[in-house]
Amino acid sequence: MPDPEAGDPSPGHEESNGGTLTGPNPVDRGKKGSKLHVLSDAAGLPLVVAVSAANVHDSRALKPLLMALPAIRSRRGPRRRRPVKVRADKAYHSAEHLAWLRGRGIVPRIARAGVESSERLGRHRWKIERTLAWLFGYRRLTIRYERHGHLFNAFLVLAATITCYKKLAKLPT
Questions:
Q1: What HEC string does the chain produce?
Q2: How far apart are CA 153 and CA 21, in angstroms?
Q3: Residue 21 contacts by C-beta under 8 Å, 6 or more apart in sequence?
Q4: What are the tens digits of pLDDT across the range 101-144?
């Protein structure tokens, strides 16, 4: 008879320390860790957020983030389902991603490794860095206390929602 206190034996459950959606961090001596992925608008408001293991490459999150983008209401015409431009760093540059973005009618503005300096995209990168700083301002996200990945993801979505509310409440009506 299985021990009820031994934990969930399901395939998605990890028995090791760290819980789900964690992996060995390549820059922190192999400690278990998570990585946040954020898709924001031009002003830096988080639109879509996700969590992955620390050892998963950033480029694997590009398509799911763009597919999860909600419909955007416009004053004229139908709702928009895609952004006009996507700015990303060198980790997202690949022929597959460029072809996929162009096929969807999105203009890719992705740095190329060894060709473009980081200063050109640095003009726009500070917006996403500021967005990540806003999200890491919540103590629950700075250090991961949750063992279950879905709970950590829920706190991330809640932090993004509160951030959007705070920033949009300051706008003049």
A1: CCCCCCCCCCCCCCCCCCCCCCEECCCCCCCEEEEEEEEECCCCCEEEEEEEECCCCHHHHHHHHHHCCCCECCCCCCCECCCCEEEECHHHCCHHHHHHHHHCCCEEEECCCCCCCHHHHHHHHHHHHHHHHHHHCCHHHHCCCCCCHHHHHHHHHHHHHHHHHHHHHCCCC
A2: 9
A3: 34, 51, 52, 53, 149, 152, 153
A4: 999 889 988 877 777 665 665 667 788 888 989 999 998 888 88
Q: Which amino acid is at 133?
A: A
